[in-house]
Amino acid sequence: MKASVGTRVVERLNRFAEALENKEVISERFTCRRVVLDLEPTPYNPKLVKMTRAILGASQAVFAQFLGVSVKTIQAWEQGTNTPNDMACRFMDEIRRDPKYWRNRFKGSIVAKGTRARESTRSSR
């Protein structure tokens, strides 16, 4: 009978602990991988912010809502008064990396004004 996942995990951790106690070179006994993500955000200037917003076909107000920032923040980015923080730049990088996905995601988020209120009223009856 095959050992359970838990049993196999414990056995492997015990082997790892033994190797540490015996001062073995871990990379010679075990497969070791180091994962590094290349996620340095692109610096966004006003033109690039506008182009990213255009990918979604969104107004400043709707783009602000989608990114979770204020309209004034979007206006400041697009006028060059302020620059987006790293998190906003990463989000816009993702939009630019896969525009089709984000356009569909964006369109799927659109709800007619007042629709949610009516739906919640119906469900509470």
Helix-strand layout with pairing:
Blueprint: H1 5-21, H2 26-29, H3 46-56, H4 60-67, H5 71-79, H6 86-97, H7 99-109, H8 115-123
Helix pairs in contact: 3-5, 4-5, 6-7
Helix fraction bin? 55-70%
Low-confidence parts, pLDDT < 50 over ≥5 residues?
none
Ends apart, CA distance between termini: 55 Å
Structural domain tally: 2
Helix run count: 8
Strand content: under 5%
**Main structural class:** mainly alpha
As a whole number of angstroms, the C-alpha radius of gyration is 25 Å
What do the pLDDT scores average to? 88
Named CATH architecture of the largest domain: Orthogonal Bundle
- Report the order of strands and helices: HHHHHHHH
Shape: elongated
- What's the story with the biggest beta sheet? none
Per CATH, what is the topology of the largest domain?
434 Repressor (Amino-terminal Domain)
CATH top-level class of the largest domain: Mainly Alpha
Number of strands: 0
